[in-house]
UniProtKB/TrEMBL annotation:
This is SUN domain-containing protein 3-like. The chain crosses the membrane at residues 6-26. It comes from Glossina fuscipes. The gene is LOC119635096. GO terms for cellular component: meiotic nuclear membrane microtubule tethering complex. It comes from the Eukaryota. The keyword Transmembrane applies.
Amino acid sequence: MQTCLGYMLTIALLCFFTYALISGNLQNSKKLERLRQDVEEMAHMVLSKYAGKGDPALLMDMIDRTVKKHLPKIWDDLYAIKKSLKAGECPSLASGRQVFKIDERVNYASDELGAKIIAVQAQPVCPPNFLKSLLGMEFTANPPVRMLESKMEPGNCFAFKNDTAVVTIKLPHLVLIDQIGLQHISKKQSPNEDTSNAPKDFTVFGIMGDRDVQLGKFQYGCIQSNLLQTFTVRSAEKYDLLRFHFNSNHGHPRYTCVYRIVVHGKM
C-alpha cells in the first residue's frame, strides 16, 4: 500500500511541478487553467474514492487509467506552448489578463519528441566512396533525420537521387493517426526559385508486427500559399512504425528533397 501511495504522490508532484514551471510565465492561460483542473480532478479521485481502502492492485489500476487519460492533454499543451515560445509569440493583454491561443497540434514525427529514422532505401545525390558506404554515411550532406526537424531553411532536407525512396520512421509512442503531411520551402526561400525537387506522389504504410497496412496514397501539391499540407487518415489501430514510399517529384530531373514530415493523432 505504501508503494502505491508513493507512486500516486510522485505522479501528483510531477504534474504540479510541470504546471508550476510553466505557469510562472503564463499564469492566466486558459490552457493551463484546464491543466490545473485536470490535476486537481486526479488528486480528488484518488483521495475521495480510494483513501483508506486496502486494495493496492485496485488503486494502482485506477492511477494508471487516470494518468493515461490525462497525459495526452498535458503533452499537447506543453508541446504547443513550447513551439509558440520558440517562435517568439507572446500572450496578448486583454482587460488586464493574459490570453494565450494555442492552435498547433503535436507532430509525433518530430525528433524533439523522440521520433527516429530506422531504415532508408534510396540513392544518395552524390555517389559515396567505399568507406562512407561501409560506415552507412552515404547521406552525410543531407541526412534523413532532417525530415524530423522543424527548421525550414534552404538545404535543411533529406535529399536523394531521382524521385523514389522508401523511409521507415519510428514514432515515440503508439499513435492513433488522423493526419499525415509534408512541408516544403517556398520559391522565395529557394536560391534559384525552383521547387520542382519537392516530393509529389507518396504512399504511407503503418507497420503492425509482420503486417503492412496502407494508410493512404497522397499527393503533395507544392502550392505556394499552402506549403504545409496535411491529409486525412482513417485508422482503427495505433502505430509507432510508419513507412513512407516517395514515388515522384514535381519535375526535377536529378534529385528530390523532403523537408518535413508531419504526423498528427492521439496517443
